[in-house]
Amino acid sequence: MHTFQPYPIELLEMNPFTKIGKEWALVTAGSKTKCNTMTVSWGGVGVIWNKNVVYIFVRDSRYTKEFMDQGDFFSLSFFDEKYRPALSYCGAHSGRDEDKFEKAGLTPAFRHSIPYPDEANLVLLCRKMAAVPMGEEVLLDKSIMSNFYKDNDMHTMYVGEIIETMAR
Questions:
Q1: How far out from the chain centre does Cα 72 lie?
Q2: What is the structure's pLDDT at 3?
Q3: CA 128 – CA 28 distance, rounded (Å)
Q4: pLDDT tens, position by position, 27-74
Q5: Domain 5-167, what fold?
């Protein structure tokens, strides 16, 4: 197990366009008895409802979505580039029929009973504040449907208050 230290969110310097969009992150949800993780490359950070938040998008078909919907907490974790193969694995495999952490070479760890991969270098522990289904009716740019949802596998947008930030 690695040692994480609480890190003041006011000192956090990260470019979400790079960290989420290019380097990717893992969202992890569940409990100490069963959890799952998956790669996310759509989302951001900001302030809403007077809270520091993250927002991420999870497709309806993803196994991790079941954990997101059942629980009140999740983590968003960022990694060094050497973990790119693990993030690729977590984005391409379900975890429904295997231990995805083990197969990806990652170790589940917990803080406040919130799961996260121990190999991360930055972890945002989050309390779920909103789950917003993305249906065709909310898409004002109709090309989004044909470009990203031809199979009708829509996303849910999750907004989570960042309750703690940890770094190595």
A1: 14
A2: 82
A3: 12
A4: 999 999 999 999 999 999 999 999 999 999 999 999 999 999 999 999
A5: Pnp Oxidase; Chain A (2.30.110)
